[in-house]
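can u do me a favor
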């Protein structure tokens, strides 16, 4: 089957690093953690190259157990990374983050793949895995933002109910802004990709509506569930800090 997506030459792809190197240069000049940026960039390059090879095998195999294994790895990694910014050992809150992403993100994924797209088979890897990646990655970010903010509010003397509400609102700021800006300021990833490949703009808009709804829903539910499940642990950690 002929590839409909134009291949980017490596020499051209290297030009995309220029803005990144500018940012790293600014971080270095301002005596900030530029090494973190370099590490994140290198890690991104290695991960994407590896996942390219892995997904080639997964897509060609079209095996339900292999697809489920990939989803489990994605959820496990997202749950671990979500807790990176919290001043607590990750193992303390890991199960709460894992349950939040698995239930909220997984539930959203089921609705989208079986109800909206009606995938046949339901585990079609070329569609299921990219959608799962969008859902789990954004759920991960919302949990990270919610966890960090609730700890800050507790440290400032807020009651947990009040801190929880502030944290949930903070966790949803990126996606709320995205909902306001989409179509006016930005054309998000899926829609942009479809338009680059000359899809009908109206069809591309429908797919993007689906994506925005699924991400907003997964983010909100994951953050809320995490804040509920981890309440006692967060309160204990705040009390110990005092």
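np, heres the sequence
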């Amino acid at each position: 089957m002929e590839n409909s997506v134009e291949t980017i030459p490596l020499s051209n792809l290297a030009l995309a690093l220029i803005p990144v190197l500018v940012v790293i240069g600014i971080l270095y000049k301002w005596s900030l953690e530029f090494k973190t940026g370099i590490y994140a960039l290198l890690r991104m390059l290695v991960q994407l190259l590896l996942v390219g090879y892995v997904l080639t095998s997964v897509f060609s195999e079209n095996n339900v157990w292999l697809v489920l294994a990939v989803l489990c790895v994605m959820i496990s990694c997202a749950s671990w990374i979500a807790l990176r910014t919290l001043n607590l050992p990750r193992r303390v809150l890991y199960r709460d983050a894992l349950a939040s992403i698995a239930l909220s993100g997984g539930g959203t994924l089921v609705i989208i793949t079986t109800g909206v797209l009606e995938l046949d088979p339901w585990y079609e890897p070329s569609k299921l895995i990219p959608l799962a990646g969008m859902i789990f990655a954004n759920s991960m970010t919302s949990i990270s933002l919610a966890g960090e903010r609730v700890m800050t509010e507790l440290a400032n003397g807020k009651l947990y109910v009040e801190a929880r509400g502030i944290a949930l609102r903070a966790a949803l700021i990126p996606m709320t802004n995205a909902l306001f800006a989409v179509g006016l300021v930005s054309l998000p990833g899926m829609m942009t990709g479809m338009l680059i490949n000359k899809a009908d703009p109206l069809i591309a808009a429908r797919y993007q509506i689906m994506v925005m709804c699924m991400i907003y829903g997964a983010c909100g539910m994951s953050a809320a569930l995490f804040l509920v499940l981890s309440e006692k642990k967060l309160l204990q950690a705040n009390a110990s800090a005092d």
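The mean pLDDT is 90. hope that helps!!
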